[in-house]
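Appendix C reproduces, verbatim, an entry submitted by the partner laboratory led by Prof. M.T., so that reviewers can inspect both the input and the predicted structure.
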Amino acid sequence: MSFFGIGQKNQQQSDVQVTQGGVPLDAVSRLRRMRGEGGTPLFTSDLSVSEFVLLEQMGWRPLGLVLGSSIYHVGIQYGNFYQNQELQYLTAAMYEARDLAMSRMEEEADVLGADGIVGVKLEVGGYAWAENALEFTAIGTAVKAPGDESWRTRDNKPFTSDFSCQDFYKLVTSTGYRPRELVLGNCVYHIAHQGFAQQMRTLGTNIELQNYTEAIYDARELAMGRMQAEAETHGADGIIGMQIVEKTHIWNPHVIEFMAIGTSVEKHGEPKTVPLTFQVGLND
């Protein structure tokens, strides 16, 4: 999945035992208990009651809430004060960290024997005790399809999607498309500062700030192009629910990350309508 290579060597030692992919063995133990190993199966989810009911009516089963995490130290890269330019080292770091979180979430879903993950959320946050570090988390509900038909990706991984259960139902039953992977592209970009002469020329004037326009335009296009390239690598027919998110994170206001994200889909047969029963609430 990754387009960038950042070394993982020379990491500090930890007493926590993890799998090769970085999932704690305590998490693997918890997930196996949820499968029913050594006891009665138990599922967890962040689904609403309405989503849970709809999933049941489709014949799907929630298996468990799955999570991937990576706390990543983001290095330093300086841009030319008066130049629009991508900060490729920071772009690569932000992409790699999200890729680690997504891969660990998928590994947890594999332990549960899931066919896919719905309602995936990708979040970035920080801690006061970890300066210049960000935590990247991926979280969603692992689900199992009815029958023996496989819904996994061409790489035999659970599909990933940020669709709600309502949108998942509409996609599958009304179009015949299936979700494949949550795809993303990003770009960390330095927006050039205006020089004194530029500021004076625009003072009190209605005029396009061309250097700002070009920088923001170019950064978005780079992020969108990388997202599309991800979808193309696994043979998707399209991307649905695409969003472009802009954040400065821990940098100065002239350094912005642009992230394009959406769920890639693939045509798979004709739509199959699932009968629904509707309930009318009596509460206001």
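The first strand starts at residue 61 and ends at 73. Additional entries are available on request from the coordinating office.
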